[in-house]
Every structure is written in C-alpha cells, then in structure tokens.
Amino acid sequence: MSDSTLEEPGTTAPADLRTDRRRVVFATVVGTTVEWYDFFIYAQAAGLVFASLFFAPAGPAVATLLSFLTVGISFLFRPLGALLAGHFGDKYGRRVVLVLTLVLMGVATTLVGLLPTYAAIGVTAPVLLILLRVLQGVSAGGEWGGAALMAVEHAPTDRRGLFGASPQIGVPIGLLLASGTMTLMAIVAPGDAFLEWGWRVPFLLSFVLILVGHYVRRRVEESPVFLEVADRKVRTRTPVVALFRRHAPLVIIAALVFAGNNAVGYMTTGGYIQNYASDPAGPLALERSSVLLAVTGSAVFWLASTWTAGWVSDRLGRRRTYVLGWLLQLAGVFALFPLVDTGQIELLFAGISILAIGLGFTYGQQSAYYAELFPASIRFSGVSISYALGAILGGAFAPTIATALVQSTHTTWSVALYLAGMTVIGLAATLLLRDRTGIPLGPDHEAEQAVSPVYGLSKR
C-alpha cells in the first residue's frame, strides 16, 4: 500500500483496509500501554519504596538519589535498544521488533517483583535491580519507534497525526494503570505491608499483561511502507551508519524536541512528585494513596490532550501544534509547584493536571512528526535513535536533578526554572525544523524525504 494507493481526503477506504487499520491502532495502544505500564511501575516504586528496600545503608537522602539514579541509568541503554531495533526494524520489519521488545520488558518487570531486598541478600539486591532496569531500558529504546511507524505508515495521509497518537496515548494509559495499581495496593496493603509485599503485586501483574499484548501484536500486519521497501529491494545494509552520515544534525535536533517534553513529563512519570509530596520526612508529607490517586487522575488529562494534539496536528500542521504545546507546557511548569507546595491534595491534582495538558500537546503529534522527518529506508533507525537520545537528554535524570536542586537550594523554584529551560530548548529545536506534514512516506519518494528539514541544510 503506497502513498498513491491511500484514499484521498474525504473518500472511504475499503472495508478490509479499515479493519486492518483499526487492528493496528488497537495493537499499538495495547502494546505501548503494556510496555509503559512496566516502565512506570518501576519509576513509581523508585519514588516510593526502593530507597528503603535496596539502598537503605546509604542513608535517607543519598538512598533517594540512588533510587532515582536507577531510573535514569536505564535511559543510558535506550540508545542500544534503539540501535538494535532500528537496524533490525529497517532490515527485517517493524512487527518482529515490537513483539521482541514487549516480551523483554515483561520478563524484566516480572523479575523485579520477585527480587529479594538488601536486607535478604545484601549488595546483590541493588545490583540485580539495576541489571533488570537496564533490560527495561533496552526494551523501551526499541519499542516506541516500531509502534509509531506501524501506526503512521498504515494511516491515510490526512490522518497521520490522529493514527500516530495511538502509541502516544499508550503512555498516559500506562501511567494511569501504573498509578492506579499502586494506589490500589497502597490501600489494600497500607504501611509496612506495602513495603513488605504490596509493591510487588503490580510488577507480577505484568506477566498477565504481556500475554495479552503479545497476542494482540502477533495479529497485526507488517507496515505497508516496509513491505514496499522490501519489494523494491532498497533496504539499506547498515541503516544506522547511513543515518548518521547523512542526517546527524537532524537526529540531534529531533532529540532536543523530545527532551523538552520528556524532562517535564518525568516529574510524574519518573516518580519525583510522588516522592516529594508523600515523603514522611519531607515538607508536605501527604498520604501516599492520595498522591497516587491524584497522579492517576492527571493521566486522564494527559491522555485526552495527547489524542487531541494528534488530531489538531492534522489540521494545523505538526510544527504549529508543537509551538502551541510548548506555550501550554511552559504555563504548566510555572503553575506546578505553587499549587503542589500548598500541601492540599486538590491543588496538587490541579497542578499536575494543568501540566499534563501541555505535555499532551508536545507529545501527541510526535509519531507523525518524527516519521515525516526521515527517509523510508532508514526511518526506523532515525525515529528510534532520536527518541532514545531525547530521553537521555530529557527525562533520564530529571528526577535526580530535581531532587539535587531542592536539596541544594531548598526551594522548588529552582526545579521550575530547570523545567522551563528544557521547555524553551524544545521550542527552539522545533523552530529549527521545517514542517513536513503530509510528505509522502513510501520508498518511491526517498529523494524528496532525504532533503534535510533542518533550516540552512539541504543536502541529500
């Protein structure tokens, strides 16, 4: 199914094509939800229990930093996952990579739920925890690019943003499930029971979710763009080498776009707000279950704004939608801590929900935006590596940086300024790129796709 065979705007696709597209959308939502449920469960636990269970001998303050560092360490291995997934995804297809990354993530997450603590096996416990987090990082590095391309490359030209929002909304749904499950366990097993066994249950549930996700993804047809690339035998022997030889500046700028969103998003998805607001020794000391419930509720706003941003980008264009999103996100950054620091759970919920709206508008269109930036033959490598590098520059150590800033300055305004700076970086990177909304994605248009969208560059 090439670009030329997609129906024109306003026409109706054949019934079997519509069915296939619905299956793709469902599969990308379900698979991405499961992947990010697993990833966020770890971040939630890092903010709530890992400091005392795996790093207690380091002392409370250092243990918290070490716990958040394990969240960030996994990001350093995302590029490895992106390199592997990009290489094999561009050579052998999107679907096989999606199935493998889903299984790897699920196995690693389930094993975290079975880990003995430091009190049981000593230093071996945090070492094993870190190794399993590394496996999660490798999986996450390869997951998103494949899901994004499956959704966008199956989409009609005028609805790429909407279709591409399907893997994007899997992220807030994953956060909603992760926070919701942790909230439930905090209620069912309060206090010491949560530390002893309650936190483990969400990790063990991953095994069931992974079976569902695996079944759904195996039923999806391969990306039509990849099938065209394979039929024309235009696959690149070493896609990663070709990517950096021809498009290195584009990769860096695209990574900075995502970094601006990711650093801010990891205030909740990385567990920072949960730890800051519920720490018994902290300035707020709010009830853990209430904070988790507020984060769960805010994920609904993130989901809605993410889906809306994908739809809006098909009408306004990706670039304009991003600019709107950066302005909304900046407003959310400056509203966040004044509301959180009131110590009132209702205002904390309002703060993270306002932020979630801006986050959605700098995330929902990303699948279509990234897919339209790179040529077909190296697209999987381009989107995966840009995404992985953006995650390192953005969210990898955002909770650790925020913790260190508050410890050194004794004010959350330092964190707000850091997040505002990252937002401005994302805006600046967006303005460096031309809008390519609607560009043909098939291999017949490789020459057009290879013209750099970076202002000032036009080499092929």
Which class best fits the helix and strand makeup?
mainly alpha
Q: Indicate the mean pLDDT.
A: 87
User: Roughly how many Å is the radius of gyration?
Assistant: 21 Å
**The named CATH superfamily:** MFS general substrate transporter like domains
The parts where pLDDT drops under 50 for at least 5 residues are 1-11
Shape: globular
User: How many domain modules?
Assistant: 1
Separation of the first and last Cα atoms: 25 Å
Helical residues, percent: over 70%
CATH topology description: Growth Hormone, Chain: A
Number of helices: 21
Strand content: under 5%
What can be said about the biggest beta sheet? none
Q: How many beta-strand runs?
A: 0
The succession of helices and strands, N to C, reads: HHHHHHHHHHHHHHHHHHHHH
Highest-level CATH class: Mainly Alpha
Key features of this structure:
single chain, 460 residues, mainly alpha, Growth Hormone, Chain: A, 21 helices, globular, disordered N terminus
Description of the molecule:
The protein is mainly alpha-helical and 460 residues long. It has a single domain, classed as Up-down Bundle (Growth Hormone, Chain: A). Helix content is 76%, strand content 0%. It has helices at 15-48, 50-54, 60-76, 78-92, 94-112, 118-121, 124-154, 160-188, 192-198, 200-218, 224-231, 239-265, 272-278, 288-316, 318-340, 345-361, 366-371, 379-393, 398-409, 413-431, 446-450. It is a multi-pass membrane protein. Its main location: membrane.
